[in-house]
Amino acid sequence: MLSTSVIEDVLTAALETGGDFSEVFVEDRYTSNLLLQGGTIENSLSGRDFGIGIRVFKGLQSVYTYTTDASKEGLLKAARHAAHAISGEKIIQPQPLNKEMITCAHPIAMKPRDIEKFRKADVMRKAYEIAKAYHSSIQQVMVRYMDEEQNVLIANSEGKFIEDKRVRSRLAIQSIASDGNQIQPGFYGPGAHKGFEFFENLNLEHYAGEASRIAVTMLSAEPCPSGKFPIIIDNEFGGVIFHEACGHGLEATAVAKNNSVFANRIGERVAPEIVTYIDDGTLENEWGSLTIDDEGEKTRKNVLIENGILKGYLIDKFNSRRMGMESTGSGRRESYRFAPTSRMTNTFIAEGKSTPEEIIANTEYGIYAKYMGGGSVNPATGDYNFAVMEAYLVKDGKLGTPLKGATLIGNGSETLQLVDMVGNNVAHGQGMCGSLSGSIPANVGQPMIRVSEITVGGSKEAE
Question: Where do the structural domains in the chain lie, given as residue ranges?
Fold first, then answer.
């Protein structure tokens, strides 16, 4: 991607005004996006994006710049531009680059760039037909296909020189149901750190059928009661609440500046003993997984909360300086246009001992949130607000009427303390996570859990 000699010269130029660390991030990305609507491919876009990011540290100063000019002259100009924002007395020389060979932890069988577009379109049409045929009330189905290949080279003044290839694929299915008086959506968006083999092995009957089933079910749903109730949150994308309301609060981006309720609390109890919270970038071929992070560090399994005790944070290279703690392989960025910072990969509540049947049977009255929708959170306080895409009333230990209009309102650290049952059916959902370093693929997950009380915003008073 770039010669070793050019990289060495760029790293040296970035330190010529007294910086104590410099880094080069080279990215070459290929993407393919298709949209099918009304049975027809409406959009088909493929592209390539190439660029180089250059970063310089001086103590707790950090400067970042990027360029698409890969000539030696262009790179030296960008490096010196970053260097001029740094002022130091001692000029240091970079360590000799030592290329590190790694084995890809997420094997790819079929590179998407080698696959003809008609095969990609066939996957979309099959999903469309399954979703559309589910029920006569399905009025519209949209299917989005995405694949990407991201090649990166990371080198720094400490002698690191490493390359990596990431390949991801995803299918997003949205169904719209209508009974003439109202419309209801349903959505499913499976994805993985895999090539086209992901689509060949994807259970389209399940995913496309679920998108339409959700939409159709919600047509007959009754208004959700409002008030404070025990809430059962199902597995997979149910983990989005703790991803947003707790996970971001465990990133060094917030912790290093004391902008988190979890700052300076390692060793304290922050959850019941039945809760263990993990971020694991090594899970084979999962959507949020990486062999190395965007700073060249190997990803790892980071146990953040163990049996209710706060054990650690997600830390990137720059914030490790602020905190006096080692990087946890958590430095991530959307692209070369962003400086990396601490981010999640695959974050989930670990499996517990209760079965889903036991959790429901032990709930006298409450709300069962089967699928979560979108929401918002204040990362500094952990206050959140999440819509529920599919919900049910729980009464006398049994699932009852489907409910619409449910919104869960609370505080992440407080909700964490109120988890009183954890199931044994861990599963992951896929999404895109936005933060300071852009939008990145991330898994959220958990088994079914029960929270003893959450405020529910609904459209009618509780009986």
Answer: 4-219, 222-461
- Token pair in block for residue 323: 């905190």
Q: Which amino acid is at 42?
A: E
pLDDT tens, residue by residue, 356-376: 999 999 999 999 999 999 888
User: What's the per-residue H, E or C state across 226-248?
Assistant: EEEEEEEECCEHHHHHHHHHHHH
195 closest CA partner among 118, 299, 115, 128: 115
Binned at pLDDT 50, 70 and 90, residue 350 comes out as very high
Residues 206-228 pLDDT 10s: 999 999 999 999 999 999 999 99
Q: 4-219 has which CATH code?
A: 3.30.2290.10
Separation of alpha carbons 157 and 96, rounded Å: 8
Rounded to 5°, the CA angle 183-189-195 comes to 150
What single-letter DSSP state applies at residue 251? B
**Two tokens, residue 223:** 């208004």
Supply the pTM of this predicted model: 0.95
Distance CA 393, CA 400 (A): 5
Q: Is 319 helix (H, G, I), strand (E, B) or coil?
A: helix
pLDDT in tens, 20-58: 999 999 999 999 999 999 999 999 999 999 999 999 999
Token pair of 130 as six digits: 């399954």
Torsion of CA 267, 269, 274, 276, to 10 degrees: -40
Q: Give me the half-sphere count of Cα atoms (radius 13 Å) on the Cβ side of residue 328.
A: 27
